[in-house]
């Protein structure tokens, strides 16, 4: 039988929208997604999942109500369930997200930046 | 409050053993681990978790009873729960593993290559 690798860069080439996570793999109840970030996102939290950010290219920050973390390529951070955060990136940043399947990008916040969940590339 | 990024390369620098996954983050019931591979591992399967392999440096293969997949840096693959597999690498390969917390590296197989679970770096 033939098994195929998932090439991350090839999957990024399939979309250009920012702030719109695309699923590339499922692992138990967890989705592995790719997302392009540019500018400021909205403050939000996720009531039922931690959210892992792995920076693949570029740099980003995650603001918290009481601090922030700066991430560059090769660095990662896990935002705990329920913690308000606001991602941002001064230049386009490519990120791998790891979070429970069914997670909306804007969490509890909603609004114009809410992307359709469940889209694979 | 001060939040710290997890730098993947810095975490790899904390250990040199092969086939001995080290935890760098927890996300819901999932551990994110780093592992160095060299040579052939044992045939095994995991009865209660899918297992994600993300190759960060080098190249590796995963043999299945009916085929194989070759992975190089920037590529990933998810081995489904219960599927027998045998990882191997001709030169040292650095891999990020994503799997349910509590997973033993040798799964159902046991043996000398079984590493202690639950070790963080």
Description:
Two copies of one chain form a homodimer. Chain A is 4% helix and 49% strand. Chain A is mainly beta. The first copy, chain A, has a single domain (14-100), classed as Jelly Rolls. In chain A, strands 2, 3, 4, 5, 6, 7 and 8 form a seven-stranded antiparallel sheet that branches. Chains A and B meet through β1, β2, β6, β7 and β8 of A and β1, β2, β6, β7 and β8 of B.
Classified by CATH, the class of chain A is: Mainly Beta
- The count of DSSP E runs of length 2 or more, i.e. the number of strands of chain A, is 8
**Termini separation of chain A:** 23 Å
Structural class of chain A: mainly beta
Please write the string of helix (H) and strand (E) elements of chain A. Answer: EHEEEEEEE
Total number of domains of chain A: 1
Counting DSSP H or I runs of 4 or more residues, the number of helices of chain A is 1
Unreliable segments of chain A (pLDDT under 50, ≥5 consecutive)?
Answer: none
Q: Level of helix content of chain A?
A: under 10%
Helix and strand topology:
2 copies of one chain form a homodimer.
Chain A: E1 6-7, H1 8-12, E2 22-27, E3 30-40, E4 51-57, E5 59-64, E6 67-72, E7 75-79, E8 85-100
In short:
The first copy, chain A, has 121 residues and is mainly beta.
Summary keywords:
1 helix, homodimer, seven-stranded antiparallel β-sheet, 8 strands, Jelly Rolls, 121 residues, mainly beta
